[in-house]
Amino acid sequence: MIKILHLSDIHMGSGLSHGKTNPETGLNTRLEDFTRTLGRCMDRAISEPVDLVIFGGDAFPDSTPPPFVKEAFANQFRRLVDAQIPTVLLVGNHDQHSQGQGGASLGIYRSLGVPGFIVGDRLEMHCITTRNGPVQVITLPWLTRSTLMARSETEGLSLDDVNQLLRDRLNVAMEAEIRRLNPEIPTILLAHLMADRANLGAERFLAVGKGFNIPISMLTRPCFDYVALGHVHKHQNLNKSNDPPVVYPGSIERVDFSEEKEDKGFVLLELERGKVNWEFCALPVRDFCTIKVDVSQAENPQAELIKAIEKKSIKDAVVRLIYQLRSEQLDGIDNTELHSALSEAHSYNIQPELVSQLARPRLPELDSSNSINPLEALKTYLDNHEELKDIAEFMLEAANNLLAGEVEPLIMVDN
After folding, report:
1. CA–CA gap between residue 11 and residue 31 (Å, rounded)
2. pTM of the shown model
3. Which of the pair, 353 or 411, is modelled with greater confidence?
4. How far apart are the C-alpha atoms of 360 and 354, rounded to whole Å?
5. Phi, psi for residue 388 in degrees, rounded to 5
6. Is 30 helix (H, G, I), strand (E, B) or coil?
7. Are 193 and 214 contacting, i.e. CB atoms less than 8 angstroms apart?
8. CA 104 from centre of chain
9. Which residues does 142 contact at the CB level (< 8 Å), separation at least 6?
10. 379: Cα separation from own chain's centroid
11. Beta strands in 262-346 (DSSP E)
């Protein structure tokens, strides 16, 4: 059997606001976290050893990461070259250039002719020779509407009609690659997409409006022995019958507090034609911890805050303390004591919210010091306004459709 490691959504260089500068290296400690975790994935690939590594896309937060972030990523993947383990790097939505051709952050591996590396920036079938036999991998990078049709073709069509037309065209393009398959050789579909049954997390707002959902029926074909997905950060198998498994391994590190309760890791599988065994391998990653407490009715708000902190295990964790209080209680808060109580955390921020009958509580996520994209900001606002609850889903969908009209990146599709 062919042994394969499937990982995805590395996002090297994300979440630096949750870290601090390491005085010994000059690097952000969260970048060091991501590098260390990716290194554990490479350790496992080499120690097994696996016959193939497949990466499901989103190497970085965007297509133009700074050189030291690209170097951290490359240093780990170079270990696979030294171990002579072939590798497929798929292009995700964050890997694409904002305009023009996709794959800006990963194309360098093709340009340099890195031995054993395949960059999947188009729908294409690849037959890869491994130490334990050949395996076929169909790469399906992140696709947008502009990939498959011209804007003029969508005029007068509803959003549902446009999406159906897109799925029809993608289906035709996939059939062309499927016809090239050798039915005797095990086959993997490696795709960066939003499947229609996926349990979503933060990525709902990272790329909303830039793509379209793919039905599971398009992925669960008898020609595929394993469907390796990327894009959704929460690990899940969308086809419990495992014929074939349709698996998101999830991201390898927590990007932000929306992933606070999620396990992180990669998937290890053994594959032959018509048979696959796979397991999720959890990684030891840094904890995120939210402490939220309402002290607006407390006689001693300071004591209540200290008590709430002491109840949590915060050592070496990324922590946020969110507390509600009345304006007249402000003088009773000793910030020096709060900082001391939180000092065991890896990093922390304190977010007081004033409550009043005349004013709404401030939303800490929308503070000017926080980086947040428009869709996530809208969701945060709606989550904190009960009177908008009934129309929240409609408003998010409307905003989604507005963003769909932005200039979209292109990915080549061979027919």
Report:
1. 10
2. 0.82
3. 353
4. 8
5. -105, 5
6. helix
7. yes
8. 18
9. 57, 91, 92, 93, 95, 96, 102, 192, 193, 207, 210, 211, 231, 411
10. 18
11. 265-272, 275-282, 288-294, 318-325
Averaged pLDDT of the chain: 86
Q: Which residue has the tokens 């006689």?
A: 299
Q: Name which of 263, 215, 262, 261 is nearest 239 in CA terms.
A: 215
Q: What is the pLDDT of residues 96-152, one digit of tens each?
A: 875 444 457 898 898 889 999 999 999 999 999 999 999 999 999 988 666 665 566
Q: Phi and psi dihedrals of 325, rounded to 5?
A: -150, 165
Q: Which secondary structure element, helix H or strand E, spans residue 241, and what is its range? A: none
Count Cβ atoms below 10 Å from residue 412 Cβ, excluding itself. 13
Percentages helix, strand, coil for the chain, rounded to the nearest 5? 35, 25, 45
| Angstrom distance (rounded) from CA 233 to CA 230 | 8
The amino acid at 295: V
Q: Exposure of 34 by Cβ count < 10 A (0-12 exposed, 13-18 middle, 19+ buried)?
A: buried
Non-local CB neighbours of 343 within 8 Å, separated by 6+ positions: none
Contact 104, 122 (CB under 8 A): no
Contact of 128 with 84, CB cutoff 8 Å: no
| Cα 268 from Cα 280, distance rounded (Å) | 7
- Measure the CA angle with vertex 287, ends 286 and 292; round to 5°: 150
**Strand-pair partners of 133:** 130
